Amino acid sequence: MTTLVQSVDWLAVAPPALTALVALVLLVADLFLPEARKPLLGAGAVAGLALALLSLLPLLDGDRATFCVEKAGCSYRADHFALTVQLLVLGGALLTALLSFGAVRAQRLPAGEYWFLLLSSAAGAALLPAARDLATLIVALEVATLPSFALVGLRHGERRSAEAALKFFLSSVTATAVTLLGTAFVYASTGSVHLDAIAAALGDIDPQLRTLARVGVVLTLVGFAFKTAAVPFHFWVPDTYTGAPLPVAAYLSVVGKAVGFSGLALVTVRAFPSYGNVWGPALAVLAALTMTIGNAAALRQDPTRSFSAVRLLAWSSVGQAGYLLVPLASAAYTDRPAHALGATLAYALMYAAVNLGSFAAVALLARGRLADFRGLYARNPALALLLAFFLLCLAGLPPGLAGLFAKLAVFEAAIDAGLGWLAVVTAVNVAIALVYYLRWTASLFRTTPEPATDAAPNAAPDAAPDTRDLTAAGGGTDTAGTVTAGTVTAGTATAVREKAPAEAPARRPLALVTALGLCGLLAVALSAAPQLILRLADVKLF
């Protein structure tokens, strides 16, 4: 007789469990803390995420599983795949928390709700890569996603923020409904929700159920493809990133993508390996379309447009999602699917460090337009060099060797799988991306005066600069003397530009500088030892 009583390995579930527990503690503590002591909640969030990261260390020595059922399998498994993704999402959440200190204070966000939502989402993101049944996968996906809606729209009274949250919510709910329908079809076809049991059942399925299973496989992929911002599920990205607080946009660009890609990897490689002829071509086409549309849109960004820096990073993240999809598609055509997944994880780790660093640089400068970065090296050499290094990593150019070797791992996965056409499309898109990454990088070192129309907005010569453009874009770092895009007279623009460089270094939150420094250290370390990226692609994940 099969028992329904399951033992729990608390050490295995510690990373997501600790994150969720700290989230609840912060929510309750918010009720008792006076307003002046609310910053302690942020410190508690950082400490909790650091503790969750440390809880990964005892799990490195082996494969642990819990919530197991006889003959069906385990619902939670802390293998190398799960630990790698948990490192990525918890590390990304920790850096996001450091980015958030200034934004929570400057934009007067409700501190208790903000930190609770951020850690709740991180707990779901940490749970998902260890899930080994469809029910746990869907629950983890929603726990990671639902708090994100509230985070995007947390700025009360901001129309842009509310519209971004509504668009994000409606599109995500639709994708989730389709995914639930797909999982229902898969369960009806196989009689199981555990991934390994599904894989065994699909390998020898009743011919009468084959069509139902195929439809279920395709529909199940939709929700995860939405989270990765793959075309055609990408339309929410630019408006959501510009409407959300800037740390939330950075979080979605890294942790949100990690959630989607880990879910895609599990359902394709673990649950649906026998249907590689269905999901392999679909993911290959999605990869080609995603990188092409993302890079083409990023290429067309107007430097003088409001929020253009954030919008470029948003479209760049869509293009980067296309690169991340290439190894996943390759897994359907190779005898080494785990190697292909390793290439995706290696690229995701590089992307997480440099993309969060790019968002941190935008937040530290407290400007929302690309035109405002012109001549940054003359005003702040250290920040300009760091941002240039991050952009070169994203482009895959030396000295950003981390990005170069990550792209080599992606090309290797495509070529090994016989997807030569996809490797060619990827190479063309890498060349397209070079244009806008190098254009932004070059502008950092130009000293040519900007036209008056490129100046900062709505500020009187003797008044404090208006940061409404940055606030709407999600920034919250209060660096004195910096302003954002808009329309002013030439005299006002000149006055603000002359005052900004002298005042900018006065007030920079330590947490934001720390986040930027950590991202820089990670990017430099990966570029100094790029063989680590290739070695990760060969790690046994399952």
Automatic annotation (TrEMBL):
Residues 451-478 are annotated as: Disordered. It is a multi-pass membrane protein. It comes from the Bacteria. The chain crosses the membrane at residues 12-33, 40-60, 80-102, 114-131, 137-154, 166-188, 212-236, 248-272, 278-300, 312-333, 345-370, 382-406, 418-438, 510-533. Its EC number is 7.1.1.-. Keywords: Cell membrane, Membrane, NAD, Quinone, Translocase, Transmembrane, Transmembrane helix, Transport. It holds the Pfam family Proton_antipo_M. Residues 131-431 form the NADH:quinone oxidoreductase/Mrp antiporter transmembrane domain. It is an enzyme of class 7 (translocase). Its main location: membrane. NDH-1 shuttles electrons from NADH, via FMN and iron-sulfur (Fe-S) centers, to quinones in the respiratory chain. The immediate electron acceptor for the enzyme in this species is believed to be a menaquinone. Couples the redox reaction to proton translocation (for every two electrons transferred, four hydrogen ions are translocated across the cytoplasmic membrane), and thus conserves the redox energy in a proton gradient. NDH-1 is composed of 14 different subunits. Subunits NuoA, H, J, K, L, M, N constitute the membrane sector of the complex. Belongs to the complex I subunit 2 family. This is NADH-quinone oxidoreductase subunit N. It comes from Streptomyces evansiae. The lineage of its organism: Bacteria, Bacillati, Actinomycetota, Actinomycetes, Kitasatosporales. The gene is nuoN.
